[in-house]
Amino acid sequence: MAVDIAGLISVIVFYVIILAVGIWAGRKTARSKESDDIFLASRNLGGMVSFFTLAATMVGGGYINGSAEMMYSRGFLWTQAPIGYNCALCIAGLVFAPKVRQGNYITIFDPFQNKYGNRLGSLLFVPQLLGDLFWSASILSALGASLSIILGIDGTITIIVSACVAIGYTFFGGLYSVAFTDVIQMICIFAGLFVAFPFALTNEAVDLSKLSDGVWQGSIQTREVGVYVDSYLLLIMGGIPWQVYYQRALACRTSNIARWASVAGGVAAAVQAIPPMALGAAVAAANWNMTAYNTSTPLSPEQTSLVVPLALQYLCPKVVSIIGLGAVSAAVMSSADSCVLSTASVLTHNIYANIIRPRASHREKIWVMRISILVSGALGTIVAISVSSIYGLFFLCSDLMYVINFPQLVCVLWISFSNTYGYLVGFIVGLGLRISAGEPLLGLPALLLFPGYDEELGQLFPFRSFTMVTGLLSTIMVSYVTNQLFLRKILPKRLDFLRCVTSMEVTVDKADIHDAQTKGEAIPLSENQKSDLAEDS
């Protein structure tokens, strides 16, 4: 396929504009004197910018291409990600964000480190890292597929170049650059997709009468009900404990802005799912013999991830396809930068500054963050080049977040008696059950066969929800039992080897401790809290 020079020039111009805006916005970071400013944009994001950055982060390449892929292959009922993830965004804004903002945290892992200690509290970063990795990979993979078909450029090259642009302005500007480029990207996404899909639906090669109710709606067999419900619960609750979301919620000027920007962003992102699903329906109803694609066979399983670029290339006029490609590019940038910044923020603040180098200078933290951005971006790029199913990656990124991080987030925020023993047991139980269930996308065999297991279809039991509930109950029960054993002096205090339970302790956050010390007030501390404070100092 010959390279489309006009389209290539258009994409290059778009990338240059985004890079310039990102670097311009990043000037605020260069003037900041606190490393927290680069993580949270000085906690000064207003309502409009907050709305745009939250919506744009949700609407990534995986969101667009994955939704079209699933609409084409299984119909509307199985296109669960747009509904599930946007419900999660609304719930997080209304319920979780206000609670997190009360602690004045920098990342969502701060309450874990405050309560369970810096080292053990950072365990949950592993699922978060994998989630961000899979998410950024799905995003970049979607763009590589789109550019290779529409512009005739090798997909691997486009993935690498796109990743470099997103990493570039994030490297220099942190959240300031990410948030301000999100405004432009969200406008491009909205305009590009809504311009493109009517052309695809009205193309002469598309016969919508071919889409009977069973085709466009999809169907759910009786044996699939457990999987279906499990998938929705995974997307909704697994979409809540993401650092990439709380980075924006904590950067908002007020709690009220964070709350309503989340709800508005969720609604806007849900509306943005309409064009890709319409493109998926158009491809399902197309007679490809009447197009330049010129084939009489339906798309193979390996081609279903190409639904959006195929619709833009062969069912839309050339100018419209380039506009649509700009929308996909914008979506990729808006989410890829968020993923790498999320990972880098946690590596810098929670791992490097809290554990490895508590006395690290502002300049040192900035460079650690920049190196982390480069490393996380490179890893996402490698996975994007290696894996074919965009929707599979998009779906998988919330898996560990649901079965491990979600129950732990509930416990650390709302179960006052949760302790390190329960936290560790819940983590091990959740991780062990999830790995034992297997994962075809990663080549993991099923070691534990839940009821209804099928050799062809795999696990049909809602094992993810079972794993999440089991981890949650394990955390609560073990925390309660160990508290009672030590507080009632059934076990001697010397056996409390994690130093997390002492008689008549007052549990306080580090923020409260430091505030009290600043004011010269006395405050009772546990041995664990004294140890953590000694590490910090």
Name the descriptors.
mainly alpha, 537 residues, Sodium/glucose cotransporter
CATH class: Mainly Alpha
CATH homology-level superfamily: Sodium/glucose cotransporter
Percentage of residues in helical conformation: 55-70%
Structural class: mainly alpha
Task: Describe the structure concisely.
With 537 residues, the protein is mainly alpha-helical. It has helices at 5-25, 27-31, 35-40, 47-58, 61-74, 81-102, 110-116, 118-121, 125-150, 155-201, 213-217, 225-238, 243-249, 255-271, 274-284, 307-314, 318-356, 362-386, 390-396, 399-414, 420-437, 463-487, 510-518, 527-536. The model is unreliable at 503-509 and 522-529 (pLDDT under 50).
Structure, described:
This protein is mainly alpha-helical. It has one domain (5-22, 35-402): Sodium/glucose cotransporter (Up-down Bundle), CATH 1.20.1730.10. Helices cover 70% and strands 0% of the residues. The chain is built from 24 helices and no strands. Helix 5 (61-74) packs parallel to helix 15, helix 5 packs across helix 17 (318-356) and helix 17 (318-356) packs across helix 18. The model is unreliable at 503-509 and 522-529 (pLDDT under 50).
